[in-house]
Amino acid sequence: MTPARTGRHDREHIVGIALDLLDRYGLPDLTMRRLATELEVQPSALYWHFDSKQDLLAAVSDRILARIPAAEPGADLLVAAHAVRDALLSYRDGAEVVLSSAALRPGRSRAEDALRAALPTALPDAGLAATAVLQFILGHTTLVQQRMHGESHGAANSAVDPAGGEDAAVFEAGIALLSRGAGLTPTLR
């Protein structure tokens, strides 16, 4: 599915095509060369828009996280955690992309803002608590996506269902444990 050649490509269009390639082929096969081929340009043309592949992946990460609804103060932490997880699961290897970008790009993300908004403002170390919850979500969702990938290649023993079953129970238990550790009363679905 090659895009129609329209002349110049802008940064947003390139990120959209990169997300499409990510969904079709996964992170290991999202290369600058493949992206350039899809856009019908030379790989060097991409560097007019992005300093490096990591810069491109940071923009892809931002687009994945843009799916998280705007943070509402006082929202339920479990609801906010599910919104972050759902955004990560919306693209193949989405959690891995966001995780790699978070590791190399310090600062708060939309995901952390959504989680922080769900914590009481009077909570000591609310930023630290939001970061801990986000790191749990990233790790858990990366594991789920790796299992889903293994399952699709016949490597897993049972079907992976991130919305139900054991993975959902572990996710909710993890959020509940972190909530209790922060002095909150967790809610369960």
Question: Could you spell the SSE succession in H and E letters?
Answer: HHHHHHHHH
| Main β sheet profile | none
Structural class: mainly alpha
* DSSP E strands, number: 0
Distance between the termini: 40 Å
Count of individual helical segments: 9
What does this structure look like?
It is a single chain. With 189 residues, this protein is mostly helical. It folds into 2 domains: 11-60, Homeodomain-like (Arc Repressor Mutant, subunit A, Orthogonal Bundle); 70-181, no CATH class. It is built from 9 helices and no strands. Helix 1 (11-25) packs across helix 4, helix 4 (53-65) packs across helix 6 and helix 5 (77-89) packs antiparallel against helix 7 (110-117). The longest helix is centred in the last third of the chain and has 27 residues, at 126-152. It is globular. The relative contact order is 0.11.
Question: Any descriptors?
Answer:
189 residues, 9 helices, globular, mainly alpha, Arc Repressor Mutant, subunit A, disordered N terminus
